[in-house]
Amino acid sequence: MGDPSLTTVLLMALAAFGAGWVDAVVGGGGLVQLPALLLGFPGAAPAQILATNKIASIAGTTTSSLTYYRRVRPDLRTAVPMAAVAFVGAIGGALLGLHLPKSAFNPVILVMLVVVGAYTVARPRLGTETALRFDGHRHTVVAMVVGFCIGVYDGALGPGTGSFLVFALVGLMGYAFLEASAKAKIANVATNLGALVLFVPGGHVMWRIGLLMAAMNLAGGYTGARTAVARGSAFVRVVFVLVLTAFTVKIGGSVLGVWT
Fold this sequence. Notes:
Elements: H1 6-25, H2 30-40, H3 46-72, H4 76-97, H5 106-122, H6 136-156, H7 161-172, H8 177-199, H9 207-231, H10 233-256
Helix pairs in contact: 1-2, 1-3, 1-9, 2-3, 3-8, 3-9, 4-6, 4-8, 5-10, 6-7, 6-8, 7-8, 8-10
């Protein structure tokens, strides 16, 4: 594969910054970054696209998770076990994803997005404040089940992982959106790392463009996390609904054959 043009490099940089910002606020940065990689590198293998996306994403998720931790102080007694099993799930998902057609996931993802979006819109008070539905050992177990299941999804496919983590923490466990985003970022670092355990040794990463995108994703992640903390859960909820809507349109169009 030849060197990318200046236009392609600029597109990747802009997409990575936007993806980092969106991912830090509500997750779903892959909605921005993956299509950009597919557009910029039409001749790349799917594994190269996924691996390069993960290299860029882990820079942003690591930065935003550290920013959230310093400013929100999420409870690590929940976040760390959830992240640990998410890491294991992502490795298993990546192995699974090597043998499954990615197109088979789109109808399932579309249903999940519609359900998540409708539930969030129908309950305007959802995620405005923390009201945990589980306590003690049960709380940790539920968080670990969530982390593992979404980790498998992220390793196998990936787009929307952060959004699904946020929704599970808000809708299922009862967190406010801001605290849910903080915990989701920690788990998302683990899922990205789990996938890279397979992708990096396999030589799938396009390193030059990947490192550029990582730097821009890092900048976007830092900016997005600071914005979310400053604006609060109400702002995060609005962005969450907007991102879900955009993601639903994109996946829905793919399922219906509007675009490829």
